[in-house]
Structures are given as structure tokens and as C-alpha cells.
Amino acid sequence: MAETRNEPLAAWLKKHQTATEELAEAVNKAIGAFTGRDGTTSERTVYRWLSGENRWPQGRQRRGLEIVTGLPATALGFVPRGKSKSVPPALPEDPDVRRRQFFGASAGTAAAAVIPLASPVSARPSRVGTSDVIRLRDDVERLVALDAERGGHGLEQAALDGAAEALRLQKQSTTQRVRQRLFALASDFTATAAWSLIDAGRLDGAGRHLDRALTLAGLAQDSEMAMQVWNLRAMLARQRRDYPEAVASSQAAQATAIARRSPLHASLAYARTAAGLAHNGENRAALSCLGRAEDALAKGDLTQPRATWIAFYGPAEL
Q: Which of 138, 131, 190, 118 is nearest to 159 (CA)?
């Protein structure tokens, strides 16, 4: 029987910006957490999972994958051996992930989120790696989900706590790639804190957070994170009715590397520029930008996995 590429696992790797060797490292670390000895999963093993050559990993690796991703093996595209075998239940998440629970504020108050991110240093492994990156990215996505459910009010402190945790771990990381990804997560958390204030109408505080988020995106050398911040800056400037700054921020988003290579990101940047120009009374230029936004969006593949922050954008939004 011909091998079939494991698209769900490939999509998970792309969404979490995780390289094959990083997934192998994270799975080995997870195996070590429940056996006392790190696993021996190699990058070659991950390639075999992706190609479909190995459609059902061995037990320890399967459990390690489920701990790292928080998903059952079947949701990652794996198929149990033998037609008579039932699908095994999903294993519980990593206890570190389970501890990060969100709690709504009491009745009559603004929605709030609490992430008890910090645990005693002695309780943590000394090595910081991909599993920490994945764990913190899950925390960011939970904040985004809570914002979608309840609105952004009250999320500022939880987001800032996440940024502080990412920066603390960054200092302990031994690889440049992990350090940069932790800087990017710190930027993402800080941008989320800014959005919480924008949503609450506290615009001055939002500006300070975006300044910090942009610095962290630069340290991460992450062009998509930089575009996310410029996108929020354009929205903030428009709420302040500072339309020239809204246009300049949108044009900065256009200039990012991600906007130059991704039609979807380029389209959003042009759309934001068009909105700023229209508010500034520059109607002809606004219509030109809208045309560019439409042309760029037509070239994009909307079926591909994308970052959570830009998942809202498509033809209807344009």
C-alpha cells in the first residue's frame, strides 16, 4: 500500500513553527518526564511519521507526542495497527499545561484570566527547550480564545505574566533558536496585553505595551510578530484619530518580510492602509490600496494553517 503523507502532523508543526528536530527533542523530554530517562526519538523518526512510513508510533513515543501536543495520536493523523483495534483514549495533558487554567472574574466584574505561570525554579527541569515554547504558545492561544469568548477586558495582567515567564526562560535557554522563539512569545503576550487595553479604551497604556512588543519582536527577528504589532498600532492610531500615524503603521506592516512573501499578510496590510487613508480623506489612494488588498488576497491559499492572530481575515473581512 502506498504511503500517505501525515497532513495533520505537518499542519501541527507549521502552526506551532516547530522543526522536525525540535519535535523529536520535545518528545524525548516528555518521555523522560514519565520514565526517568529521555527517549531516543530522532529527526529521522519524525520524517517517517510525516511521510506515512510509520503510521502508528511505539507506545512511549505516542504518549510523548500526546503530552507535547495535548492531542490524541489519532488527531495527529496516526492510525492504530489492525482493523479490529479501537482508538485509544487521549492521554492527559502535561501537568504543567493543566496547571495553566483560566478563571472568569466574579459576577459583575470585567472578564479576567489568571495563568499561574510561575512555579518554583527547583521544580523545573534545568534545560529549557521546545516543549517550553509549545507550552507557552498554548497559553497565548488560550488567552486569544478567552478574548474571543468574553472580550479582551481584564486579560492584561495574565498576558504580562506570560511575557515575564517567556523572558525568564529565555535567559536559561542554551540555543539561539529557542531564545528567539521565547522573545517572540514574550512579544505576543505583550501585544495581547495591549489589545486588552485597546478593547477597554485605555489607549495610552496600550501604546506603551506595543512599544515593548515591537522591541521584543526585533530581538526575536520575527517578521510575522513585527507585523502583528504594526497591525495593532494602526488600529490604535485610528482609534486615537491619528490617521497619518495609522497609515504609517500600516505601511510599516507592508514592509515586513512576511507581508512581502505572504499574499494573505500583504492583503491585510493594504486593507489597514486603505482604512487609514479613507479616514484621512485620501479617497483615491484608499481605493487603490483596497484594489491591491483584493488582488493579494486572491493569490493567497486560505486553506493553509495560519497564526491565530490573523485567522479572522478573509474575503468577508476585507
A: 190
Going by C-alpha positions, the residue among 230, 285, 273, 223 that lies closest to residue 253 is: 230
What is the sign of the dihedral through the CA atoms of 272, 276, 279 and 284?
negative
**In Å, how far are 13, 38, 77, 82 from 71, measured between CA atoms?**
13, 21, 10, 21
Q: What angle do CA 291, 192, 187 make, to 5 degrees?
A: 90
Yes or no: say if 244 and 279 are a contact pair by the CB < 8 Å rule.
no
Closest CA to 116 of 173, 70, 157, 58: 157
Q: Which long-range contacts (CB under 8 A, 24 or more apart) does 39-47 make?
A: 39/64, 46/20, 46/21, 47/20
- Locate the domains of the chain by residue range: 7-76, 100-221, 237-318
Query: What is the per-residue pLDDT across 87-139, written as a single tens digit (0 to 9) for each?
Result: 444 444 443 433 333 323 322 333 344 444 433 333 444 578 888 888 888 88
Collapsing DSSP states into helix, strand and coil, what is residue 1?
coil
Pull the grid cell for residue 306: 495560519
Predicted confidence (pLDDT) per residue in 155-168, tens digit: 899 999 999 999 99
Higher pLDDT, 199 or 245: 245
Query: Of all helices (H) and strands (E), which one includes residue 164?
Result: helix 156-172
Residue 251: which of 283, 219, 292 has the closest Cα? 292
**pLDDT per residue as tens digits for the range 270-297:** 999 999 999 999 999 999 999 999 999 9
Angle at 115 between CA 110 and CA 117, to 5 degrees: 155
The whole-number pLDDT of residue 116 equals: 43
Contact 8, 75 (CB under 8 A): yes
Looking at residue 36, what is its pLDDT?
A: 82
DSSP state, 75? G
- Average pLDDT, stretch 35-45? 87
